[in-house]
Each structure stands twice: as C-alpha cells, then as structure tokens.
Amino acid sequence: MKVNFKKLNAKAIVPTYGSEYAAGADLYACLETDSISFLPGETKLIKTGIAMEVPEGYAGLIYARSGIANKRGLAPSNKVGVVDSDYRGEIMVSLHNHSNDTQQIADGERIAQMVIAPFLKVEYTEVEELTDTVRGEGGFGSTGKK
User: Fold this and answer.
1) pLDDT single digits (tens) 62-115
2) Lower Cβ count inside 10 Å, N or C end of the chain?
C-alpha cells in the first residue's frame, strides 16, 4: 500500500520502519530548536513536519515507541492518537513525560510510531434490550475470577 505524504518542513524526516516486519513506522520530531525539555508530568505537542493522505477505510494510529516509553517515560498523552483519512494537517504527537525526571527530545529523534490500520464503520442502532450472554454485565476483572 502506498500512502502519499507531503513535507511541510524541508528538514522533516520520512517515516521509517525499524525492521522488515515492523508494524509501525517511526515518526520523527521536527523541532524549531535543537531540542526541547519536558518537566516531569509535562505534555507538549511535537511536530513531525509532514502531512499525509491516510487511505479511506483506514486510520493512522499513533502509538508509543517502546524504547523511549520504557527507558525515559515519554509516551503519547492520549495513549493512541488517531489520524483520520480526511485529515490533511501536520501530523503531531502529544508527548507526555510520565517519569520523575526532566527529559529531552532532540530534533530528528524518533518520538512515536504510526500503524496504518483498517477499521469498520458501523451504524449504531438503539434497541430496548440486548441479547443475553454468559458474561452478562460482568465488567472490569470479572472474567478472571474463579
């Protein structure tokens, strides 16, 4: 599948896959300075310098990169960002510092990963009753009890 993209900044880096079988393509910070700092608990919107045409019937899902999430506590603040197929603006990552230390992001650093994934468009239909199941209304943690 080909996904069209446009560089909005000459120094923007094209998303890349870290290995042959990687599901997510790395997104890179495109900063106006050499680096930026994140205080503990701070969230900042990081530009990538690119816009893209996610195909109709698909979404670009932005996830944390395991390296900076585990080692430095930096991950998307919204947990999973969603880029809809009709969005044509700059791809940005709302990055949050979950650690107790000030963290740095350098210009050109890999900050998140994007998976292009299909989704089902559904029609929500209001009904008076739902079908019965064995689980019923059992919620959080209810299926692990014996």
Assistant:
1) 999 999 999 999 999 999 999 999 999 999 999 999 999 999 999 999 999 999
2) C
Distance CA 97, CA 101 (A): 8
pLDDT, tens digit, 9 for 90 and up, residues 65-75: 999 999 999 99
Residue of 86, 27, 97, 96 lying closest to 55 (CA atoms): 86
Residue bearing tokens 């963290």: 103
Angle among Cα 79, 3, 43 to the nearest 5 degrees reads 25
Residue 28 · residue 12 · CB < 8 Å = yes
Q: How many CB atoms lie within 10 A of CB 63?
A: 19
HSE of 125, CA atoms in CB hemisphere, 13 A: 5
